[in-house]
Amino acid sequence: MTSRKPLPFNDVRHLQAHQFLVDEAYLLDAQDYDAWLDTLTDDIRYVMPVRVTTALGAGFDTLPGMAHFDENKYSLSRRAARFATEHAWTEDPPSRLRHFVTNVRTFTGHDDAHLVVESAELLFRSRGDVNEAALVSCGREDVLRLCGAQWKLAQRTVLVDESVLRMQNLAVFL
Predict the structure, then answer these.
(1) pLDDT over 70 for what percent of the chain?
(2) The domain that contains 146 carries what CATH number?
(3) In a 10 Å sphere around its CB, with 0-12 CB exposed, 13-18 middle and 19+ buried, how is residue 132 labelled?
């Protein structure tokens, strides 16, 4: 997460970035993965490093080179397409999802066509009638790229707030 000065909340770029995240959360909750994939750039990098608990001053809190997932558009599209098959047992019955996105801060990118967006997310996931619901809390750092008149997600780094995930699987998108 950055220590640069964020854009003001009334800056049109911040409002557009915030709208992008709200609309994305809706698509993920509705499990409209085809529409969600259309909001991603073709060269997207979508990564969730493995968090570790270390001593104060150790200088790191993720394992270098290790990630729960490190994906591109092709792998994300294959994962989404799998939900529509009989082989997606991790999502049969489908999860009930609610993505809560908050604490949105927007920063200028390396040029006018890019924005860096920090946000906090809480995912509520319920599946079936027997399993307990799960919560995942995380921080996200996104890079949005202006493609024509539309912002698209070019990069996402998800930092979960716990080092041991208590969710049964990571079949859903954060």
Answers:
(1) 90
(2) 3.10.450.50
(3) exposed
Contacts of 97 (CB under 8 A, 6+ apart): 28, 29, 31, 123, 124, 125, 172
Does the residue 125 lie in any domain?
yes
**Cβ contact 31:141 at 8 Å:** no
pLDDT of 66: 83
CA distances from residue 95 to 77, 126, 160 in whole angstroms, order as listed: 18, 6, 20
Q: Could you tell me which residues are beta bridge partners of residue 117?
A: 106, 142
**Residue among 51, 39, 54, 70 nearest 136 (CA):** 51
Tens digit of each residue's pLDDT (9 = 90 or more) over 1-33: 556 899 999 999 999 999 999 999 999 999 999
Q: Is residue 139 part of a domain?
A: yes
The domain of 29 spans 12-160
Q: What is the DSSP letter of 36?
A: H
Let me know if residue 169 belongs to a domain.
no
3-state secondary structure of 11: coil
Q: How many domains does the chain contain in total?
A: 1
Q: What are the pLDDT digits (tens) for 97-135?
A: 999 999 999 999 999 999 999 999 999 998 777 678 889
Backbone angles phi, psi at 85, to 5 degrees: -105, 170
